[in-house]
Structures are given as structure tokens and as C-alpha cells.
Amino acid sequence: MGIDSRNPGGTIYDVLAVAPVCGNGGMPEHSETCDNNDDDPGNVCDSQCRAVLNPEANEEVEPNDDFVGANVVTPPSGESELTVRGNSGGRCDFDMFVLSVPEGGSVQAELLNVSGLPCTPNIPPNLSLRFVDQDGITERGKGMPNSSNQCPSIDATATFARDLLSGEYYVRVTSGEGEGSLFSYQLRFVVLPSSQ
Ligand SMILES: [Ca+2]
Ligand SMILES: [Ca+2]
Ligand SMILES: [Ca+2]
User: Fold this and answer.
1) pLDDT at 92
2) What phi and psi, each to the nearest 5 degrees, are found at residue 68?
3) Cys-Cys link to 160, which of 42, 66, 88, 141 (CB 3.0-4.6 A)?
4) Using alpha carbons only, what angle is made at residue 49 by residues 93 and 37, rounded to the nearest 5 degrees?
5) Which of 42-51, 150-159, 161-170 shows the lowest per-residue confidence on average (mean pLDDT)?
6) In this structure, which ligand is nearest to the CA of 60?
């Protein structure tokens, strides 16, 4: 841990160390997106205190800025797709989503405008879409615009997003800060089984 003082010469800080406990009575602590301590199968908080997104609750839930608090993308049973909604922009807004991938499976992710349509060139200059490995940190690859959508997409031809080992992988959206960085989006996920 490092603390960088705003003041020349430094100053004295108090540091509070917190060990969050998931399931301690409905109190979200640092790094927990939710904590409703509830076994109700309809709830939208998983056993790791991460918000669960599904067709009935598809709006991103902040804080989701790192892999610990990533929103869990949960397509309906027997289906492979889910489209979520989010807002990006401002200092430190990273939007992390986590997907469960079967052995040999693949991930597609397509960033769209707020209406769910392909983006025009009028998008934040630093808009990015990254595919992140199971450790939640290592970038496996980046989404790119294509001929029909100026927003970045990760598609089935991306070698970094196919033939995966089973486990949880992450997709991260950022658009930086400053003028023109605010961006409301839809993000369509497809998790495909092994093609073997
Ligand atoms: Ca808690
Ligand atoms: Ca956000
Ligand atoms: Ca965020």
C-alpha cells in the first residue's frame, strides 16, 4: 500500500484497515457491491457479494470498478446471451463484468450505443473494451471497431477470447475522463460452448 500526499513535505494520515465480510447482515463494505445476506433465489446478490445481472435486472450496479466487485453476467437458463446497460465516464470509472465460461468455450462482447444500436463515430475518444483473464488483472486482448460499429467489439474471430479454460473471465469498459467522455451504453454478451 502506498499513500501519496497532496501536500509538499507530506502530512499525517490515519489509515483504517477493513476486512469485508460477505453475508454480515446486509451491510455492503468496501469492495462489496451488495450484501443482502439473503438466500432468496430471486435476489440479485451472489455469494461473493457481487451484483447479478439478468434480463430482469440488466442495469450495471456500482461500484464495479475492479474484479472483486464485477457485475455477474447471467444469461437466462439454457441461453447464451445477455445485454446489459451501463454508464461510463469520469475519474476512476471502470465497469467490470464477469462471465462464467465452460471448458473450451468462447466469449463475444459487443459495445453498442444507449439505444442498443451500432455506434457512430461520435463516441468518447478513449472508449475501450478489454477482455481480462481469470486473475481479474491480466489483459488477454482488446476489442476493436469494425465496419458496422465504431464502438469496440470482441468477436468470435479473436483468438484471445476462444478455446478458453473453464472459469470466470472479465470484460472491462472505460471511457476516460474529461470533456466528451460520458457514455451511456448497452453491452451484448454471448458465451458460447466449446466448438469441438
Ligand atoms: Ca458485508
Ligand atoms: Ca459505470
Ligand atoms: Ca464502474
Assistant:
1) 81
2) -65, -35
3) 141
4) 140
5) 42-51
6) 2
Which class is 52-192 in CATH?
Answer: mainly beta
25-49 average pLDDT score = 77
Q: How far is the CA of 44 from the centre of ligand 3 (A)?
A: 17
How far, in Å, from the CA of 54 to the mean position of ligand 1? 22
Distances (CA, A) of 168 to 46, 75, 107: 14, 14, 11
* Ligand closest to CA 88: 2
Domains of the chain: which residue ranges? Answer: 52-192
Cell numbers for 15: 489509515
Taking CB atoms within 8 Å and a gap of at least 24, the contacts of 23-32 are 23/47, 23/49, 31/63, 31/66, 31/68, 31/69, 32/69
Q: Identify the residue with better confidence: 130 or 26.
A: 130
Q: Quote the ligand 2 centre to 179 CA distance (angstroms).
A: 16
Edge-to-edge strand ranges of the sheet holding 81-88: 81-88, 183-192, 106-113, 149-154, 144-146
pLDDT (0 to 100) of residue 40: 55
What integer best gives the mean pLDDT of the chain? 91
